[in-house]
UniProtKB/TrEMBL annotation:
<protein>
    <submittedName>
        <fullName>CDP-glycerol glycerophosphotransferase family protein</fullName>
    </submittedName>
</protein>
<dbReference type="GO" id="GO:0016020">
    <property type="term" value="C:membrane"/>
</dbReference>
<dbReference type="InterPro" id="IPR007554">
    <property type="entry name" value="Glycerophosphate_synth"/>
</dbReference>
<dbReference type="GO" id="GO:0047355">
    <property type="term" value="F:CDP-glycerol glycerophosphotransferase activity"/>
</dbReference>
<dbReference type="InterPro" id="IPR043148">
    <property type="entry name" value="TagF_C"/>
</dbReference>
<dbReference type="Pfam" id="PF04464">
    <property type="entry name" value="Glyphos_transf"/>
</dbReference>
């Protein structure tokens, strides 16, 4: 019996893997194509591979021991004392330390550009081998411009006439990326034009440069950019998440569609589908599902819920852990002042549950086990940083507070209905008090305006699968 052709999924990290899973499961259900996952980086654990396999899908492995650099399964943080003053840094496992030592070793004996070029050549050869071994009819990624596996695999896929689809993942804008670059410890070395090598690169390759508040910077470190250009995978628009050579981009809503147009992405490359996580919001909005979720949290329909998507700037190495814990304590202590609301916390997939458990118990908050998308429909007030979940909250009419105590200063959510942006610490309590006085009141929105933020019909995953099928049939 002839084996089914595959659709290859290449997640960038665990969070993107979780976003891709509903699409892959839809493919399994339809039975037309078999999903095949390439978990290429150290961002994935054995548990991630097991999750894929237990769902009836295949994880591609060339040589199991050498291909996968799985993280050590030990806890990321082992506390040696109860004193919270020792929560200042994010310790890494032994595997992470070993990886850093090996990188330092190779970079010491080999020029960085040569090292990056060899890595890309290896990935291109790897892609050729995979496409020859398997019947691949389509490729699914979250971007065609991020440093890593996707650009070389897309380049080789194009040679084999294999179409590629970028699926919705995160709200990434040039301004947002630039702001995060400025906050990184390696900004001067890797991105700033104050460096001689970076300044030279900007002269030869002006599209690599973006100016933010008078500061010019590169999209990527020079070593990666030059290496990717040498092998022919550097994107035409490096400041856009979809400015490379992918065939099609599935866009989550009208707001993001307009953002991509402004970034120079051709309209013919985009299709409005919604995002699989929007289907989770739709499902959780149904009365019986809401009741199940509330029961799991020890709550009822009568309880008022303040939902907080816990900031994770320390996990993303944008803020020190010392400042991070002070901010979390401040947020929780402020929430506790509103005794008529039950506080529910949603942790980012990168966050470690045990790190937050004691603080949540101290301030009588509940850490939810479900993803944020399933929790949004139960929230009467939503608190978050600049996140795609804010768009969903706006779409379902939930009053929202965006906290920006670290001067990120994004303007993407300015003047949105029902959204208050708090940039000064001493104004948070007053803002929450104002929203608390009207708890339970949803922001009314026209249907066409709602679709600008969220496609709430439970069919987003189906639409993405249909686009994949259409692309694969043209292969």
């Amino acid at each position: 019996m002839k084996k089914r052709a595959h659709i290859l999924f290449i997640p960038f990290h665990r969070i993107s893997l979780l976003e891709m899973m509903p699409i892959a499961l839809k493919l399994v259900e339809d039975g037309i194509y078999a999903p095949l996952f390439l978990l290429r980086s150290s961002a994935f654990s054995r548990d991630d591979a097991a999750m894929v396999k237990e769902s009836g899908m295949e994880v591609y492995s060339l040589w199991d021991f050498f291909r996968f650099r799985f993280k050590n399964e030990k806890k990321r943080h082992e506390k040696k004392a109860e004193d919270t003053s020792k929560m200042e840094s994010s310790p890494q496992g032994k595997s992470g330390q070993f990886k850093k030592r090996m990188k330092s070793f190779f970079r010491f004996f080999m020029p960085e550009i040569l090292w990056e070029t060899l890595k890309y050549i290896y990935r291109i050869l790897e892609a050729h081998l995979l496409y020859r071994q398997k019947r691949i009819f389509g490729l699914v990624v979250i971007s065609d411009t991020l440093p890593g596996v996707e650009p070389p695999f897309i380049k080789v896929a194009n040679r084999y006439n294999i179409p590629s689809l970028i699926v919705p993942f995160s709200l990434i804008t040039p301004m947002g990326t630039a702001k995060i670059r400025l906050l990184k410890k390696d900004y001067k070395r890797n991105y700033s034009l104050k460096s001689i090598k970076n300044r030279l690169a900007s002269r030869f390759f002006p599209t690599w440069v973006y100016e933010y508040e008078g500061e010019k910077m590169l999209a990527h470190p020079v070593s990666w950019a030059l290496a990717s250009r040498i092998v022919g995978v550097f994107p035409d628009q490096p400041w856009s998440i979809c400015g490379g050579e992918a065939t099609l981009v599935a866009v989550e809503n009208g707001f993001v569609y307009d953002l991509f147009k402004k970034q120079g992405v051709p309209e013919k490359k985009m299709v409005l589908t919604g995002k699989p996580s929007m289907d989770a919001v739709y499902c959780a909005s149904q009365k019986d599902k809401r009741e199940v979720i509330l029961r799991e949290l020890g709550l009822s329909e009568r309880d008022k819920v303040l939902l907080c998507a816990v900031p994770q700037l320390a996990e993303h190495e944008i803020m020190s852990w010392e400042k991070h814990w002070k901010e979390i304590e401040f947020l929780l202590s402020t929430f506790m002042k509103f005794s008529n609301m039950s506080v529910v916390l949603s942790l980012h997939p990168r966050s470690n549950l045990e790190d937050y458990r004691k603080l949540s118990e101290k301030y009588r908050a509940t850490i939810a086990g479900r993803r944020i998308y399933e929790l949004l429909p139960i929230a009467d007030v939503f608190v978050a940083t600049f996140s795609t979940t804010v768009m969903y909250a706006v779409g379902i009419g939930t009053p929202t507070v965006v906290v920006d105590f670290y001067s990120l200063g994004y303007d993407i959510y300015d003047n949105l209905p029902g959204v208050k942006i708090v940039r000064e610490i001493d104004k948070l309590a007053a803002t929450l008090h104002h929203l608390n006085s009207g708890v339970g009141k949803r922001i009314k929105m026209k249907k066409e305006d709602e679709r600008r933020w969220i496609l709430l019909d439970g069919k987003c995953t189906d639409r993405i699968a249909e686009e994949l099928y259409c692309l694969a049939e043209k292969e």
